[in-house]
Amino acid sequence: MTVDVAVIGGGISGLATAHDLAGRGREVLVLERQAATGGKARSLELGGFLMECGPSTINTAVPAALAAARDLGLEATLIGLGAGVRRRYLLDERGLAGISVHPFGFLTSSYLPVGARLSLLAEALRPPRPPRPDETVHDFAARRFGEGVARGLFDPLCAGIFMGDARRLTVADTFPRLPAMERAHGSVIRAALAARRGSEPGRRLVSWPGGLGTLPRRLQGLLGARVRTGAAVRRIGRTREGLRIELGDGGVVAARAVVLAVQPHVAAQLVEPLDPAAAAAAGAIEAPPATVVFLGYRREQVGHPLDGLGFLATSGAGTPISGAQFASTMFPGRAPAGHVAIACYIGGARSADAACLPAPALEALAHEELGRLLGITGPPAIARSQHWSRGLPHYTAGHGGRRRCLETTPARTPGLFLTGNFLHGVSVGHCLALARGTAGEVEAYLAAAGRHLPQPAAAGGG
User: Fold this and answer.
1) Is it the case that residue 446 has pLDDT exceeding 70?
2) Superfamily of domain 102-197 in the CATH hierarchy
């Protein structure tokens, strides 16, 4: 068969790109190797508990997130954080420290030593410096806020959000707003005050009653027959008319343009015959293994109030858990009445080996750690884990060059585009924003080439 665009990969990035192109009148086909779409955005109903196997929230501060929800008819069903989220917790060698979600929470809490708090305030007085190539998150934080803040705040932040190492992740790629704030205002704190954002940034986090899996399910439903699951791609080759995709079952798809919305190591394998430079760039992006361990308990088993989003752990905390979410506090419907749900994240840069333990061992390990930290007695009512052999991509030294190489793939191989969380941001919102941009680039390419196929009347769902 021949289509305008073949999208390889049925995660959020691929589905959103395909949906955008279909809305522009293009004939699109999504090829997903797995039996189900959604990638890591899977929500499992487990006897009244709801487990998120990957991302668990959408940040409405990213405009593309709300725009997508509105366009897909999902905005009205969005749910915000529960009223029980009143504190944020950090874990170091001393134990859990609860900090108010108020903007000045870190200044009034004893979690940071007095010297570190004074250094944090002094950031507003420090002069800016010209950007350094590949400055790490740790080095930026230490330079602007002091070593104590870098270790106490940015180390667990990188581990909890990205499952990465603040000493290896580059600040320009991981937290691009921070150096931008320094450039624009000479100080991160002065820039934050000038922005006058809401007093509780966490309140911008939302989800749906059925979890983040609602998003890919809706996209697949709208695309209908344009999505083909169980379709493994063996090879991509060039033709005079465009690109040719060979499938594992012997089938062939001809496309005027191809969008790769797969993990970077898969992209490297598929583009290598066409663009060795892009293959090398994609193959160099690290994505250590990670596992989500979901545990449910009766409320009376847990001594901790669970009055926050969860906790993030410093590298000196002595636990393989990078972070945990108090899922039933964050959103309603994550646990049956009288129960609570907690999700733990193990692996990434800190504990890749631990993430690869057998599921029973990991679940027992997570239960033991939570028991020690949260005062839990007795076995969990439910325990389930989801292992990912490749977790979140890490933006390490040289990522800017790798990204530019991947973004210029169409200049070397016309009609071949890449999109996904290994380029500009790992959040769902960033993926949605990039998907829309990718769809625009593909549309511009097809329009310039005058390659527009008529849309068949029975193309599928909507």
Assistant:
1) yes
2) protoporphyrinogen ix oxidase, domain 3 (1.10.3110.10)
Q: Is the pTM of this model over 0.90?
A: yes
Encode pLDDT of 223-244 as tens digits.
999 999 999 999 999 998 899 9
List residues bridging with 31 in a β-sheet.
Answer: 8, 228
Please give the CATH number for the structural domain made up of 43-62+75-83+288-388.
3.90.660.20
pLDDT tens profile 350-407: 999 999 999 999 999 999 999 999 999 999 999 999 999 999 999 999 999 999 999 9
Domain coordinates of the chain in residue numbers? Answer: 2-39+213-286+394-449, 43-62+75-83+288-388, 102-197
Separation of alpha carbons 115 and 118, rounded Å:
5
- 412-444 exposure pattern, b = at least 16 Cβ within 10 A, e = fewer: ebebbbbbbbbbbbbbbbbbbbbbbbbbebbbe
Amino acid 203: pLDDT: 52
Residue type, 373: L
